[in-house]
Specification:
- The protein has nine helices and ten strands.
- It has 308 residues and is α/β, with parallel strands linked by helices.
- Helix 3 (92-104) packs across helix 4 and helix 8 (224-237) runs parallel beside helix 9.
Length: 308
Amino acid sequence: MPRKNRPPGGEAGCDLCPRGCRADRSSGRSGFCRSGEGLEVASICLHRGEEPPLSGEKGICNIFFSHCNLQCVYCQNYQISRNDTPARSMDLDTIVSAVSRLLDEGASSVGFVSPSHMIAQMRAIVDSLRAAGRRPTIVMNTNAYDRSEVIASLADIVDVYLPDFKYMDRSLALELSGAWDYPDVALAALREMHRQKGSKLELREKGSAASGLIVRHLILPGHVENSKAVLRALAGELSPSVHLSLMSQYYPPPPVASHPYLGRTITRGEYEEVLDELERLGFHQGWVQELESEASYRPDFSKPHPFE
């Protein structure tokens, strides 16, 4: 069974994430994320849409957890991330078997998507893979709304951190994700990730990532200034040498299709303004997407393989 859902030294009840709701998850889904102590996994699949050192030739084996501690209104994974949707529980042996099958097919990395409320479960899966003689690169794909103490506790199992850095605008973070403190919390988590990994992305012989930090930022329509502030914070608080993945792939999922500004994709002018800031700040490692990328990243979690 997974260890308790709290970091070392935590009091009774869950205080894994900055919500600090201290729910007794062993007695039911009563906290913010409405998650129990089980292995609530929504999907395990190969994904070829990640950054090249993570996808490799065969793709990354991604484990998508149900629910999330942010609840962004524009989430592309809304089918599984909303906390009012049913969660699917799996047993540990089934998960390890599914992951092992994809590793045998050529995946070299295992990514944990939205694990901030599922840290004990993530560790249990990694421990079981290692006990079975599997040593894939472990990727933590997180929204960065994480306690820095929890990130520090993961230094022994996470090889590559893949955090989003969504906002430097507190009012926007509150409006869209219900987390006014996101900028401060995320920066503290990112500093800890950078302390562990630095700016260098270590690669294996065939170019797949072995260790490091890649920070993602999704540009939102109508909020160029937020994106520019995010880039300035990354350059000032971490380094312009950090590997950055700047994403233009935003598209309006059904819950915000009629939203006054989230109901559209970003414009070329918006994207170029953010790219100009990226260049001005001296970022020189990472990836930028083509503006038309929004058509390529539309998962459907009602299918066995959400990305096909």
